[in-house]
Amino acid sequence: VTINKSQILVAFTVVLLFSMTIYHNGHFRDLFSYYEHAGEKTDDIDNDSWTVDLDSQFEMADEFDLMIKNIEDYEYPANSVLVVNQGTIVREKYYNDFTYRTEFNTYSVTKSFTSTLIGIAIDQGIIGSVNDPIVSYFPNTTFDNDSPEKQRVTIKHVLTMTSGFDYGVDPTLAPPVEGSVALHVLNSPVSREPGTSWVYDSQAPSILNRIIEIQSNMSLMEFANETLFQPLGIQDPRWGADDSGLTYGGFGLYLTSREMAKFGQLFLQEGIWEGEQLVSKEWVQESTS
């Protein structure tokens, strides 16, 4: 089967935005009854730069219309469906009283934003390379459980979930710690040789946010707003933080469906938004290959 670029564009955006639900203990649970309810943006977001044509008969329109009909007929637990084709919103549906103003918890999609900010920091030269050891960015800090393995953990290992950190608890969960999550991770032992095994990890990405703060002399949110959110027209997004004030690297970012679609569109345009290269083409290719 040959799939052209327009089909990829549509499919990518739907995968990114489709259905904010969770499968828990054998049952589909609505995300916002199981976790914190999403908020509603109250500022003016009507001029968000999207062109909208909900009557468009784009390629695969019939398939997506059938998908939406099946969602509604069979009460599949979806909260929003948004389809973008060639830069235009061609289908947009919301359920459960949600609207285009609803800020959905993106959960682990947050990790993709953290990765992008690392790419931008490398593009700007404030971070050297993904091959830099993470401890090199904390030269005056002594960590618990130090080892040769910990000294070898790189930014790339954290990005690819091959760091080898061992927290003694499920690494997919939010860390049950007070204070800095990044410091909690850095004080944890490394029980596997970095780069040799993959373990899903929602905790270690907070190290990356802290490195960005150190190197940019800005808070993570200040850096993100200046380099990514504001250029994309994403207004004042919520991003959860730990007790130290550091935004979580692995989860906690809230965005509207249209804002998430902008992020997808940015990658489909190889890092360019309205003529400006926000993140390098090389980083986009490396991140998606």
From TrEMBL:
Signal peptide: none annotated. InterPro entries: Beta-lactam-related, Beta-lactam/transpept-like, Diverse_Enzym_Activities. SUPFAM superfamilies: beta-lactamase/transpeptidase-like. Keywords: Membrane, Transmembrane, Transmembrane helix. Residues 72-274 form the Beta-lactamase-related domain. The chain crosses the membrane at residues 6-23. This is Beta-lactamase-related domain-containing protein. It comes from marine metagenome.
